[in-house]
């Protein structure tokens, strides 16, 4: 209810499909990208030249006016800068296999990117200054290839495990800040949650190529991100790293090689997002079976309301984009968009297309309404509301934290530190957002206080239960270890012929069974 009132006060734009239209080009072509310039946009494509001896500007670009969800062709006057035209002709003259591949906006600049060799890194760029207020461009130069870069693909630093992190024993392992334990000996890669070197068992195990490797032979990197620990492991004599994600609260681990391509932090430390899904600190996650590979993180766009964040990933080989929109309150990604080019206008309307391999003149474009409007785009607001005085972003942050509390309420007792986390979060909410007591905020402080009281009462009782469970688990592990040792000893013994030997072994088996 509070969220509905917030949207009514500040105005809200939900993501939804507006319709489908078409862009018509003069020649049959394969489109590669599009970019908005105010209410106009440039459509970039590649035409099979055939018998033509020279590539003209119209063989690569088209300029259109976007209005009423229709695309009206305009002339190329926006691009007809004398210096640019000369350098454009020289590019196609001196590089035989020149191909337009991308528009890239970096700050106030627009880069037109052309591939001139076999590799995706063999590029030439033309740099322009964007003037979206006047729907125009100003040409700068073709000497700024070094400025066309991508942000770090992992927004965190990896640490390499060292020898002083090794824990010796019958089954030695590497201790990652005493939270998770890793080893690659004995024929498999094992991740453990207990610092127990008397057992080789763990919560996850995978075979390794070299079964005789020692603890020093593997290469182990890690990153600790609150409740999450990321692992990057290369066993001895294996060419590739393996990536894992361990949740210290759920005490679970999973293989997640998608982290190798790109991994970006979600706002307010809520978790991680990557081309194949997202994973939150609470353990909530979703993986997308989109079949995409080699996707690079390109940019992050935030909506002015502070509620929605758009993550853009890009494949430099085939020009595929992946657009993931994350909602801070709902804490999920809806409607992942896979396309080959997109343009985002100041009113939040998003146009994108999916290219066909066959050249054609008419290109279908889907049009979506999104919350990613320009910072100065005005929505209707109700200024006489008590919520208006608090500010939209303040309410969004509070609601996101309340959502985390509700997520924890739904967790089972196996979630480590569940009740302590509930106490901590409800206390923080009450201290940071005093206005939650107000009727205008639906008096959310009252149910939060009730959750806090229940969690406090449960702490003492839960500590007793956890102690019993821990003792039971330790006893079980000890018995399993004794049984393994006994079976190994029996296997090493010569044929037993004496009755007393049989009786003694049976007695030991009964003792181990309990």
General description of the model:
This protein is an alpha+beta fold and 514 residues long. It folds into three domains: 16-147, no CATH class; 154-260, no CATH class; 380-514, no CATH class. Helix content is 24%, strand content 34%. It has seven helices and 29 strands. The protein has helices at residues 2-10, 82-94, 386-390, 392-409, 418-432, 445-492, 499-513, and strands spanning 16-37, 40-46, 61-67, 70-74, 99-106, 109-115, 123-131, 136-141, 159-160, 166-167, 173-176, 180-183, 188-192, 204-207, 219-225, 228-234, 242-247, 252-255, 264-265, 271-274, 277-280, 285-287, 296-302, 308-314, 321-327, 332-339, 341-344, 349-353, 360-369. The strands form six sheets. A seven-stranded antiparallel β-sheet has the order 4-3-2-1-29-28-27, with no helix packed on it. α5 (418-432) runs antiparallel to α6 (445-492) and α6 runs antiparallel to α7. The longest helix is centred in the C-terminal third of the chain and has 48 residues, at 445-492. It is flat. It starts with a helix and ends with a helix. 31% of the residues are buried. The mean pLDDT is 89.
Helix content: 10-25%
Strand order of the largest sheet: 4-3-2-1-29-28-27
Which range does the strand content fall in? 25-35%
Q: What's the overall average pLDDT, rounded? A: 89
Integer tally of domains: 3
Spatial extent as radius of gyration: 30 Å
